[in-house]
Write a structure and sequence with these properties.
The complex is a heterodimer. Helices cover 78% and strands 0% of the residues of chain A. By secondary structure, chain A is mainly α. Chain A starts with 5 loop residues before the first helix and ends with a helix. Chain B is of the alpha+beta class. Classes of the chains: A mainly alpha, B alpha+beta. At the A-B interface, helix 1, helix 2, helix 4, helix 5 and helix 6 of A face helix 1, helix 2, helix 3 and strand 3 of B.
Chain lengths: 181, 276
């Protein structure tokens, strides 16, 4: 059996790190200045989409520690209580993994629906967490709009990630087959 | 995380489950500990927050650069389209400003001579630091911005942050190369202000909407719609006379103010070092 070359190993590492890298870039984009008045209040929660998708199809590439660190970055930059988003994302992952075996086999609509439910559940958790820190938690209307926009963004990103996942699998298959030959 | 591929999904190997569970439990405990420390305003949390912000601010700036370019291109196109009208308007404004400049110079000279005559000692000196807005993450619950200057640039906690239109907020956390600004409409924001026309002092309180309100007003106050609101200088954080906003509604004793600064449109800000 042929040995894996360093270039192939590098390529395999690259493909396994790509989902986390995409999530990081989307998080940075979510946090950056968009210069569109009003958008910052209802900006779709872009990081939650790759977390859901990769957490569902390839959990190994969206580990808990990464999601925890991502939450800490968001808390630090957004000025939210440290640990809140990390815990919310942990709950998101736990709820996702609890149903993953069933959701993974289902069609797109069920996955989309479960994403919407998970997002609403963790959004409520986030709201309760913030209520501990603010005397008058407000902005529920905006949070609802943000939820709707995030749910609407999901199908497009799901399709993109599906194509990417297929491509990654194809490359992996090619590399691993070339090794075993 | 050790895994084994099955037909439909990846599952954990039983021998490694304790490790996975222990890691998960440790992270949940760490998250709760961080949350409790945030609640008790532990200074280490503030330090950790700013260290993370210092690290990720350049990445956010880099990723946000295409949006900045689009925005700049849009501004450039709209400016080019109204170049002629703007030129005429600026010429007229220039004539007007030259008259004001003459008046200001004579008043400055008069002020100086009167100060000398009365032997007045200046109470404060003011310094300025210009910084770039890295992130205006005004979510549904929180309204703050991250700017690219920090302690290394001379920025200190509680310093007021202004743009060309007026007051934007104040610095609440300072890192080495980045700082967090609490915006005027955040629920935790309190700014001592004065209504210029009615000369009534009050506190402008953020309420997580676009329109902060004035509190501690008497029921028979004479504040009217259109009154200009400026900082009163009380409390020693904000210098007196910085433009804040304009009164947009007076309803049942609730006075709402539209801030002059729209944070999402601001690219650069000035942090004012107002030392007593």
């Amino acid at each position: 059996m042929a040995m894996v070359s360093s270039v192939q190993r590098l390529e395999l590492t690259f493909w396994s790190m790509l989902p986390a890298f995409i999530t990081l870039v989307l998080t940075a984009f979510f946090l950056s200045t968009k210069h569109i008045p009003g958008l910052e209040h209802v900006m779709p929660l872009l990081p939650s989409i790759p977390i859901f998708y990769w957490g569902m199809v390839h959990a190994r590439e969206m580990p808990y520690w990464f999601v925890f660190v991502l939450g800490m970055i968001m808390d630090a930059v957004m000025g939210l209580p440290m640990g809140l988003t990390s815990l919310v994302y942990m709950a998101f992952m736990l709820l996702l993994h609890a149903q993953r075996k069933y959701i993974h086999r289902e069609g797109f609509v069920v996955k989309w629906g479960y994403f919407a439910i998970l997002l609403a559940a963790t959004g409520s958790l986030n709201w309760f967490g913030l209520a501990l820190f603010h005397v008058q938690p407000e902005g529920l209307g905006r949070a609802f709009v943000q939820w709707i926009l995030t749910v609407c963004c999901y199908p497009m990103m799901h399709r993109m990630f599906d194509s990417l996942y297929e491509f990654i699998n194809m490359r992996r298959w090619y590399i691993l087959n070339s090794i075993s030959r | 995380m050790a895994v084994k591929k099955t037909r439909n999904a990846y599952i954990l190997l039983p021998g490694k489950q304790w490790y996975y569970r222990a890691t998960l439990s440790m992270m949940v405990r760490l998250g709760i500990a961080l949350l409790i420390m945030s609640k008790t305003n532990n200074p280490n949390i503030s330090r950790l927050r700013m260290q993370i912000s210092d690290t990720v601010a350049p990445v956010i700036t880099f990723v946000g650069r295409p949006m900045d370019t689009f925005y700049d291109a849009g501004v450039w196109i709209s400016e080019m389209m109204s170049l002629r009208e703007q030129n005429v308007m600026l010429k007229n404004q220039n004539v007007e400003l030259l008259q004001w400049q003459n008046a200001a110079k004579s008043m400055e000279a008069e002020n100086e001579s009167l100060r000398k005559l009365m032997n007045v000692v200046s109470s404060h000196k003011t310094g300025y630091t210009t910084a770039r807005v890295v992130s205006d993450v005004s979510g549904p619950y929180i309204h703050s911005a991250l700017i690219s200057g920090g302690a290394g640039d001379g920025i200190k906690k509680d310093e007021p942050v202004v743009s060309e239109s007026g007051l934007m907020g104040r610095v609440i956390d300072v890192g080495e190369s980045s700082s967090r600004v609490l915006l005027l409409n955040d629920i935790n924001s309190r700014v001592p202000v004065i209504a210029e026309h009615a000369q009534i002092k009050s506190i402008m309180v953020g309420n997580n909407t676009g329109l902060p309100s004035l509190s501690y007003l008497s029921s028979d106050n004479k504040i009217q719609i259109g009154d200009r609101i400026v900082t009163s200088g009380d409390g020693g954080i904000f210098p007196k006379g910085i433009a804040v906003g304009v009164v947009t509604s007076v309803d049942d004793g609730v006075v709402s103010v539209q801030p002059f600064v729209e944070p999402s449109k601001v690219e650069y800000v000035t942090v004012v070092d107002y030392s007593f």
